[in-house]
Amino acid sequence: MDENQGEPEVGRIREAAEAADWAAVREQLTERPESEDRTWLITAVAETANVENWIPQAVEAEPGSALPLLVAGARHVNWGWEARTGARAQHVSREQFQVFHNRLRTAEKWLYAAAEREPEWVSPWYFLQMSGRGLQAGQTVARRRFEAAVRRHPHHLGAHQQHLQQLCDKWGGSHEEMHAFANRAVRDAPAGSMLGQLVALAHIEQWLALDSGADAEYLGQPEVTASLTEAAERSIWHEDFAYEQGWLQVYNTFAMAFSLTGDRELAKPCFEGTDGIITRFPWYYLDADPATAYRENRAAAR
């Protein structure tokens, strides 16, 4: 199990954030171009506890800088979702929702301020997709924020992942919209793009939405295997596959998707591609201990 998803830089910046070392955090962020790479690193900081306690001082100390605003906004997005938890809405209390929304509103103020100061940056729009979904800003606003992100970085994996979530049935979209978006994104992306993951995620999301029995029946359809195979051939199985930030999660996602369909021969090369390194997402959908889910399904694929 690798919380850093095979990227040592993620572990280093998380350690700096845990130590409240803004200088070290800032140095690592400024070394990366404002793209997918930096978004991944900011996400690691945003997921770190107690960042909300010291990042306001960094914002105050650098009044002309967009970077501390961006980090503050990103942390408040994650901090908000922590308050809400991953439970279904009917299991979230009114008090939790109030804290959730208050933190997201604060996040949006900081993220918009960062976007205004650095209009070419993609990361503010990535995190605004997450806050907008939590605040139920609606599909029109969600689409505009996604479009703002991809205008700056056309094949940004994180931005596409967030918009796929927005198009899920559970967030006011539909299975048809979700699959259409995933297929279109893969078709329009260069061969070898990590965006092939979207097709696998869409099938996993529909499987999650179905009742027991219907879920297995859905994934057992030959057209689902054909869809996953085509996406893998344009992504992880393509000779030009881009081993960029997030590649390990993409391999793990295909391994899980093919395992769920029962296509063990197709799952095997996906597991081999992970080199035994497990990412929490998406295996936690199967077990609270993702490593257990990974090991059981990898054993079945041998």
Verbal overview:
- Helix content is 68%, strand content 0%.
- The relative contact order is 0.08.
- The two termini are 20 Å apart.
- It has helices at residues 8-18, 22-30, 36-46, 51-61, 67-84, 94-117, 123-134, 139-152, 157-166, 175-188, 197-209, 214-219, 222-233, 247-261, 264-274, 280-283, 290-300.
- It has 17 helices and no strands.
- By secondary structure, the protein is mainly alpha-helical.
Number of strands: 0
Q: Give the biggest sheet.
A: none
Number of helices: 17
Shape: globular
Give the end-to-end Cα distance, rounded to a whole number of Å.
Answer: 20 Å
Q: Low-confidence stretches at least 5 residues in length (pLDDT < 50)?
A: none
Q: Approximately how much helix is present in the residues?
A: 55-70%
Q: Write down the Rg.
A: 19 Å
SSE succession: HHHHHHHHHHHHHHHHH
* Class from secondary-structure proportions: mainly alpha
The residue-averaged pLDDT reads: 94
Strand content: under 5%
Question: How would you summarize this macromolecular structure in one to three sentences?
Answer:
The protein has 302 residues and is mainly α.
List the helices and strands and how they pair.
Elements (H helix, E strand, L loop, with lengths): L7 H11 L3 H9 L5 H11 L4 H11 L5 H18 L9 H24 L5 H12 L4 H14 L4 H10 L8 H14 L8 H13 L4 H6 L2 H12 L13 H15 L2 H11 L5 H4 L6 H11 L2
Essential attributes:
mainly alpha; 302 residues; 68% helix; DUF4034 domain-containing protein
